[in-house]
Specification:
single chain; alpha/beta; seven-stranded parallel β-sheet; six-stranded mixed β-sheet; 40 strands; 13% strand; disordered N terminus
């Protein structure tokens, strides 16, 4: 480190001297010294002397003072220097250094390497994986320049050759920093090149190259230097703008590799990163001062610099110059920075990448096969390859060359045999290596061909040396040295007696860019063009447009022909490789290919496919070359087995019956998919809802099969997989083999039989996040989720934009197709009458047909037989659990069959005997993959269960008991986990709806209904089978307290559940629910009126226990929610049952107290109970005031034992009411809408609040009306009570009026109460004044013409007054939300300057207040920004709803997929705002000049495709988390 620092100081000292000399206009850097000493000026002599080792700087100054220039230096000897005052030692060193330099110049060869070469292009900007390399002495055709269009990079060249090891790194970092700061201030992209020469010693832009042994050191040093040079506040920005060094290889002129490279650093000053900042850098001034004593003192001080691009150099605007007003230019530059930043933004928007549709994959297939589209039947019998310098990273993508088995390869890479293409090819195929001279016709053509083994091996012709001691030639010399012999090769190959006339193709494979007209490949093309009399037998392939453009222009100049029509250049070599390989039938059988768009394909490597282990990838060539038994596969499908890809494949073979297209197939293909593709979201969703057994999964798979060449299709293997892993693999599939390119082909992912749409939304959200993380930029959907989900309803209730429904009734067209297909099936298959899966649909799901099939098949059913028992178990599982199955190994063991390795499934079917026609084989994919059997159709399974009960006296309880108690069913290791999972599901999974919540699973309810009492036996057996399962213990607890009213047993089971899962709020809630229900039951059974003191004591003890238990549930729920929030993958919402349970316990306490003699139902007693439970008066006071206190002493004694519960009852109930209101009103589903599934809990909340309000929100007593003061106080108290009764005393309650359709008259009455409460004399609280603001806004949205609404400006004034006062923490969120809504800039608004601060405070307050409850939810958008002014510009959710005539489901669908924003009425209603993308958010423009506010996108995926700083437009919404952007364009 010390040495590095010293080198840094040396370089800084040099820089300071240089800076002074630069000001004098005569300075040259050390590397810029003229090669001839006689041309040196006195300044250059001094510069040379300063760089000499062991020579003091004073000597250099003496030479300078004596006007020593180059010619005089050549004449000097030691004596001359002594006479000038130079000591003998330094004099000898100077003369020696001069003589060595002269000697070096004389010995320096005048080789061609110092001569400038041909023009070449710079390495692609901001790329790192291209194979491009420079040629030694080539000339970059871009001059050193300043800013042009700000996106096209400016360039600066540094020869970087006259540097010592000590100063090399400091020189590199200082030059990069200077250049980078200049580019950042000028807002232009740029590249600085080290190893590129400049005048006067080299041609401008000449490639020299440098040796960089430790490349990592350059990156590390640059990173450190950025931190050292830039201001602290701009370090991160600089690190983002200055890209890591790139090391571009330099080839020798003869195309061999060298140890040199060009070091390049790209600068990208993105507008979003740089904003309107200016960037100073700091360097060290080093001054030497003589002291009285001998020696020197070095004084170091930091100096500030400000670099800008000025033509081809970087200039410091803060440098002292002779210009009198040197700061004037700096100030002017800084003043124009805002305008310059804006120009940069506009330039970025113009250059946004657009994905072009391409047909080059199809064109490649046509051209390389001569139109046959198959290499097996190609028009071309043989291929000749012409290629140039390769790069090792290309080899993996050139496997197709081996498959083409070329007759000859003309290779212009002299290092091909050493570490190039020939070396790679020879490892996979047999080649004969030749020099061009061997093709010269010196004997019979046939004999030459035989010697060359032309038809047996690939003839690899080294056209530029590299073998047998033949040296490569420079480009300029190649034509003279080797051109004639290569022409002989071409002439020989083009003879009709060598290769078949018109039946061979010449492929020019441009692995390196051809940029010079003298390039051997240009001459080679010209010769082939002449020999073949045109381009029809020539195909050119390169992997980028720049290489193509250069090649096209060179060929047009040489041959006068535009080669574009015979070129492939839009595909990567990986895509070329995949496309060509897929044209061979043997590869289609052995390899798998993915589509890349435009007919191109890419090889899916086995290793990659295995890494995508959560997905079953459907390839373009799926099933090709397989030898599966067609009869077996088709019969299994027709019987009722799940469709496989083979069924679709077989249906497309010649002579086959086409697969039946359901009516919805064309609608999905032609309407739904294109619509989804156009949506501006990274991941979009499409639901295919179907009645079980009606072909929904088959239709979904048919859709994937039909789209496999246009989408990268896959099926999710396991619905229980880790969704974060699934999202990662989906995006990997999307980006596979695209590298630095944008994906052209989206992913179509089928997810089958999820039991909850929320899980689908979870997966969708994680995929969107992964797309954002990978910065996948596109303006259309990149992943389409096809959610194939069962519907419990047999008919579609409401059609939606993103949902297709498949019911259990065929159309006439579909019935006709089934009848026609049946005729064809009968021709090929026997036992067609047992193809029940097909026949059920053909018979249009007629119940009579299903009943007949089941009755006949089960005629001999005997529950004592093993096969009957196994069928009964499978039937039960199939009815109550979707996708239920039993593993083959389980069936074999249970039936006592000996498994046969190759026909085990058939043997199992035989084991089922007569029942075998009701089952089908299948493959189960989960954590493990195994063969299994399942019922052929859900309707068959249901009818079987009905038949077993009605005819064979086998009920559900019997079968369930058999299933739970038969150990042999759970002994098989294969499929055991799946069976346990299915059994668990049928026991515990309840059905939920917005109307009601079922108490138990459908199976338990059906058993209780069919055989009352036996459900208890079943549940106890379940607890033995699932001994360590907390959910099953919880199920028993619920059964005992809900059904049996056995609370002691219920407590025991609840305790077991808690012991098994101590930290779960759900099991804690069960314990609390047991106590609550016990209390509720005891109260209901108590017939005494009033209740006895003993009963009162018992009830209050139970209530106290319940309240404590519910509080514990709340605490655990909050902990769970925060943990989920931190995990970011668990979207399970906050468990509200503890809050609601405590409220319900409070209601029961009120009910108990109302039954006591103390609190009778008269008005005075009612008010006293209200005050006691509010904590306003204590029981002692009530007792002393009660004339009956002696008689009721025992009651008072008991009540005082529960004072803590009683005095806090109202407070705790109010806290929970407010929390739940805040939760339900402000947080909604994942799409920012209210969640309809919470309706049951909200209905119960309304019931409880009525009881609460009836007690605490009324003052019935007239005892307070003794004087006017008391009357006034009572009136104010009653006003506040009325507001609380109407739930208008909280901001959440007020906002809820936007959606609960309250009559305007009621709203106006509330408004009058607020006017009264908020009179200054009444000293309203901060909370009441905030609520006053809310109510005026809400009333204006319901009845704008109301006379009770305050003028808008007056409301703003009230808001500003409140904002100036100290605000309690609890009021921060509502205050700053309404401030953001009301102060959003509009014309003539003056109070909006602090809006950014309020938005920040809203977000902070939201996190503080809602973090415990917000997981899995999204803030509801209460208002949208409209086009009008004042109150009218606030559009509430209901107004958006009224614009759409569709029902709730359709509205939700349109909201989720964004189509709602395209509705004309909505567009007319809302104001479209513009802004710019910045760090994942948007800076919104406002009508106030210079004021921008940050807005968060609702769907971050909508920012995918928008570069940092790009302009966007959007609708603005206001949620409790701050302003949000919707429909970003």
């Amino acid at each position: 480190m010390i040495r590095t620092y010293e080198a840094f100081l040396i370089y800084i000292c040099q820089e300071e001297t240089n800076a002074v000399m630069a000001d004098q206009g005569e300075m040259k850097s050390p590397e810029d010294l003229s090669p001839e000493i006689q041309d040196w000026s006195k300044h250059q002599v001094r510069e040379w002397a300063l760089n000499l080792d062991n020579v003091d700087d004073r000597v250099a100054e003496i030479l300078f003072q004596q006007d020593v220039n180059g010619p005089s230096l050549l004449l000097f000897d030691t004596t001359d220097l002594n006479q000038m005052g130079v000591n003998f030692g330094p004099a000898k060193l100077i003369i020696h250094a001069r003589d060595e330099l002269v000697k070096l110049k004389k010995e320096e060869p005048t080789s061609s390497s110092n001569q400038p070469g041909k023009p070449c292009k710079p390495y692609p900007f901001c790329r790192y994986h291209d194979t491009y390399r420079y040629m030694e002495s080539g000339i970059l055709d871009i001059t050193e320049s300043g800013a042009s269009d700000l996106i096209e990079p400016c360039h600066e060249y540094k020869a970087f050759i006259n540097t010592t090891d000590e100063t090399k790194m400091s020189k590199f970092t200082a030059e990069v920093i200077r250049f980078a700061a200049a580019c950042m201030n000028s807002r232009t992209n740029g590249t600085i090149h080290f190893g590129i020469g400049d005048q006067p010693h080299f041609t401008h832009g000449q490639v020299l190259g440098v040796v960089a042994d430790d490349r990592e050191a350059y990156a590390n040093e640059l990173k450190s230097a950025i931190d050292g040079y830039f201001e602290h506040k701009h370090k991160q920005t600089a690190q983002m703008c200055i890209k890591p060094p790139r090391f571009v290889g330099v080839l020798n002129k003869n195309m061999t590799s060298s140890d040199k490279c060009v070091i390049e650093v790209d600068i990208v000053p993105d507008s979003a990163v740089c904003e309107e900042n200016i960037f100073h850098t700091f360097s060290m001034n080093t001054k030497k001062a003589k002291k009285k004593t001998k020696g020197k003192e070095t004084v170091i001080k930091l100096s500030k610099q400000f670099f800008v691009r000025d033509g081809g150099s970087s200039r410091d605007l803060l440098a002292q110059t002779t210009f009198a007003k040197h700061m004037e230019e700096f100030n002017q530059f800084v003043d124009n920075m805002a305008q310059r930043s804006q120009l940069r933004k506009q330039a970025e928007e113009k250059h946004l990448s657009v994905i072009k549709s391409s047909t080059q994959g199809s064109r490649l297939s046509m051209m390389i096969t001569g139109g046959s589209l198959s290499l097996d039947k190609s028009h071309f019998e043989q291929y000749v390859i012409v290629t140039n310098k390769s790069h090792s990273i290309q080899f993996e993508s050139l496997g197709f060359l081996v498959e083409l088995n070329p007759t000859a390869v003309l290779d212009f890479d002299p290092e091909s045999a050493k570490h190039g293409l020939q070396n790679r090819f020879e490892q996979q195929s047999t080649v004969s290596v030749h020099l061009p001279a061997q093709y010269k016709i010196t004997e019979a053509v046939e004999d030459i061909a035989n010697k060359l083994k032309l038809t047996r091996n690939t003839s690899w012709v080294f056209c530029n040396g590299g073998i047998e001691g033949e040296f490569p030639s420079d480009i300029e010399q190649w034509l003279m040295d080797k051109g004639a012999s290569v022409r002989d090769v071409i002439s020989f190959l083009c003879r009709k007696d060598v290769l078949p006339n018109k039946r061979f193709l010449v492929i020019f494979l441009l692995l390196s860019t051809v940029s010079e007209k003298m390039d051997p490949l240009v001459e080679t093309f010209s010769t082939f063009y002449q020999e073949l009399r045109g381009p029809e037998q020539i195909l050119c392939i390169c992997d980028n447009e720049k290489a193509f453009t250069s090649w096209r222009d060179l060929i047009e100049a040489r041959c006068g022909f535009n080669i574009s029509g015979r070129c492939i250049y839009e595909l990567s070599f990986a895509e070329v490789n995949g496309t060509v390989l897929s044209l061979l039938s043997k590869n289609r059988r052995s390899s798998r290919f993915l589509p890349c768009g435009g007919g191109s394909k890419v090889l899916l490597e086995k290793k990659v496919e295995r890494s995508l282990n959560t997905l079953e990838v459907l390839c373009v060539n799926q099933c090709e070359g397989g030898n599966e038994d067609r009869i077996v596969i088709e019969e299994n499908f027709y019987k009722g087995g799940k469709v496989s890809w083979w069924n679709f494949y077989f249906s497309e073979q010649p002579g086959s019956t086409p697969f039946i297209k359901r009516d919805m197939f064309d609608f999905i293909m032609n309407t739904v998919i294109p619509d989804l593709r156009s949506l501006r979201k990274a991941c979009v969703l499409f639901n295919l809802m179907h009645v079980p057994g009606c072909g929904g999964t088959t239709l979904a798979m048919h859709t994937l099969w039909a789209l496999r060449e246009r989408f990268r299709c896959a099926v999710l293997r396991d619905s229980n997989a880790d969704f974060a892993e699934v999202a990662d693999q989906v995006v990997k599939l999307l980006m596979y083999d695209h590298e630095e390119k944008l994906p052209r082909v989206p992913v179509l992912l089928m997810i089958d039989d999820f039991d909850d749409k929320e899980k689908v939304f979870d997966l969708q959200q994680l995929i969107e996040k992964e797309c954002v993380k990978k910065n996948i930029q596109s303006k259309s959907a990149q992943v389409i989720l096809l959610n194939c989900m069962r519907s419990e309803s047999t008919g579609q209730t409401e059609k939606t934009e993103d949902t297709v429904f498949i019911g259990n009734e065929l159309s006439e067209k579909e019935q006709k197709l089934f009848e026609e297909t049946l005729v064809e099936i009968k021709k090929k298959h026997k036992n067609v009458e047992t193809f029940y899966g097909f026949m059920i649909m053909k018979k249009n799901f007629k119940p009579e047909y299903i009943e007949g099939v089941v009755r006949n098949t089960l005629k001999s059913f005997n529950m004592n037989q093993k096969n009957a028992q196994l069928l009964a178990v499978l039937v039960l599982l199939s009815v109550y659990c979707k996708d239920a199955s039993l593993s083959v190994s389980l069936c074999e063991e249970f039936l006592g069959l000996q498994p046969k390795p190759f026909c085990g499934t058939i043997k199992v079917e035989e084991g089922f005997g007569k029942f075998s026609t009701l089952i089908a084989s299948c493959l189960v994919e989960g954590k493990v993959v195994f063969k299994a059997v399942k019922m052929i159709h859900i309707s068959i399974a249901r009818q079987c269960l009905q038949e077993l009960t009605a005819t064979h006296n086998v009920n559900r309880a019997d079968i369930t008991d058999l299933l739970l108690t038969t150990n042999k069913l759970f002994e098989s290791t294969q499929g055991k986990d799946k069976l346990l999972q299915d059994v668990h599901h049928i026991l515990v999974k309840r059905h939920y709806s917005a109307e009601e919540e079922s108490q138990f699973s459908p199976l338990i309810q059906d058993i209780a209904s069919e055989t009352p009492g036996l459900e208890e036996m079943v549940l106890k057996n379940a607890s033995k089978r699932f001994e360590k399962d907390a959910v099953v213990s919880q199920l028993l607890a619920r059964y005992y307290y809900l059904k049996k009213r056995d609370f002691s047993e219920a407590k025991d089971w609840a305790g077991r559940a808690r012991d098994l899962s101590k930290d779960s709020s759900y099991f804690a809630d069960t314990s609390a629910q047991v106590i609550k229900h016990e209390l509720k039951n005891a109260i209901a059974n108590c017939k005494e009126q009033p209740i006895t003191p003993e009963k009162l004591s018992m009830f209050l003890k139970m209530a106290q226990s319940a309240i404590e238990a519910f509080k514990e549930t709340q605490n655990l729920a909050k902990k769970e929610s925060i943990q989920r929030l931190q995990n970011k993958t668990d979207n399970c919402p906050f468990n509200t049952s503890g809050c609601l349970g405590e409220i319900q316990a409070g209601v029961l306490v009120i009910e108990v107290l109302e039954k006591t003699a103390i609190f009778s139902s008269d008005n005075v007693r009612h008010d006293i109970m209200s005050q006691v439970l509010s904590g306003d008066i204590n029981l002692q006071h009530v007792e002393t005031s009660d004339p009956r206190h002696h008689k009721l002493r025992q009651y008072y004694f008991i009540l005082r034992q529960f004072e803590d519960v009683l005095y806090n009852l109202k407070y705790r109930m109010k806290v929970n009411f407010d929390l739940l209101d805040k939760f339900y009103v402000n947080l909604g589903s994942r799409f920012g809408m209210k969640d309809s599934r919470e309706q049951i809990a909200q209905n119960e909340l309304i019931r409880c609040f009525k009881i609460y309000a009836n007690l605490f929100c009324k003052t019935d007593s007239a005892a307070l009306l003794k004087n006017k003061t008391m009357q006034f106080m009572l009136k104010l108290h009653q006003a506040r009570q009325y507001l609380e009764m109407q739930k208008a005393d909280t901001y959440s309650g007020i906002l809820n009026y936007l959606s609960n359709d309250s009559p305007p008259e009621k709203m106006e009455k509330i408004a009058r109460q607020y006017d009264f409460v908020c009179l200054p004399d009444h000293k309203p609280t901060i909370k009441e004044r905030i609520n006053f603001l809310y109510f005026n806004v809400v009333l204006s949205r319901i009845k704008l013409e109301s006379t009770h609404i305050q003028p808008y400006q007056k409301l703003i004034d009230v808001l500003c007054e409140v904002l100036r006062e100290p605000i309690p923490l609890s009021d921060n969120l509502p205050l700053h939300f309404i401030a953001v809504v009301l102060l959003w800039p509009q014309q003539n608004s003056r109070e909006c300057r602090s809006l950014g601060k309020f938005i920040s405070q809203v977000r902070t307050s939201y996190h503080t207040e809602m973090k415990e409850v917000c997981n899995g939810k999204r803030p509801i958008i209460h208002f949208f920004l409209g086009k009008k002014q004042g109150y009218d510009r606030l559009v509430h959710f209901g107004e958006i709803k009224r614009c759409i005539t569709a029902g709730q489901e359709q509205f939700s669908s349109m909201w989720a997929n964004g189509k709602i924003w395209k509705e004309k009425k909505v567009e007319e209603l809302l104001c479209r705002v513009t802004g710019e993308v910045k760090f994942g958010s948007i800076l919104a423009d406002t009508c106030v000049p210079g004021l921008k506010v940050e807005v968060t996108p609702v769907f971050r995926g909508q920012l995918v495709g928008h570069a940092e700083g790009s302009k966007v437009s959007f609708f603005t919404g206001f949620s409790m988390k701050g302003p949000v952007a919707l429909d970003i364009n």
